[in-house]
Amino acid sequence: MIDLTGRTDVLVPEEVLSELSSACRELGLEFLVVGAAARDLIIHARQQSNPERETDDVDIAVAVRAEGQFSDLIRRFPLVRGHQNKITVHDVEVDVVPFGDIEQARTILFPDDHRLDVNGLQEAHATAVSVRMPNGTEIRAAGAPAQTALKILAWRDRHEANTKDGIDLRVILLSLSADPFVNEVWGDDVALDATDADIITAAAFHYARIAAEPFTVHDGMAVVDVLHDTTLRALLTRDMRSNLLAPSLLDAYAKGFLTGLRC
């Protein structure tokens, strides 16, 4: 449990998460915070640091067993015009992504025939971290390892329109080589040996291995394929905006992720 009780510097609006928690509880649904809000709760709030890229919205993923459950949740809130899965809660836009039993080949098909890849959300849900917000609301959020895999997959799907996921990936990977995340990296001889004891790349290797463990080999290879594709790799390096560090971070991450898949 990450306990943020009494904190006044948490950027994610608790009133929004409290409202969503109540609605999901009444409908028998489980949700987890993902995206930039998860980054801010799991990483920046713990490190008491400011995000390089701030955001005004909140992303959540909802585990549903039938399509009707998702519709029931969406109908409880004002729908953002032109969107099927974006609602407004306390004047904050919330992207709601369903996953779970309604998936087809790790995708979700919306009524307008838009198909969304949700690979990684079940894995993030299985390894989610509990967070107690400043005023006591308890939620679950994607853990730091899961966030790295989700960022790579999100970047793959939308980098032509927006490069923000590349920036986020760099920020998250570098954060994992600092307190409080770095302590367990120093105890990982496999990661240290694989990276010549360079703690920054060792952290990428270590947390990539953890990120991979919930995946099947088939589904996890979707992450690896992005990093092994020469063209995509070059574009991701560019979007991470760190030509010196990005290549070594991605090398270590790919090696660590493959290690986790094969365990």
From TrEMBL:
This is Nucleotidyltransferase. It comes from Flexivirga caeni.
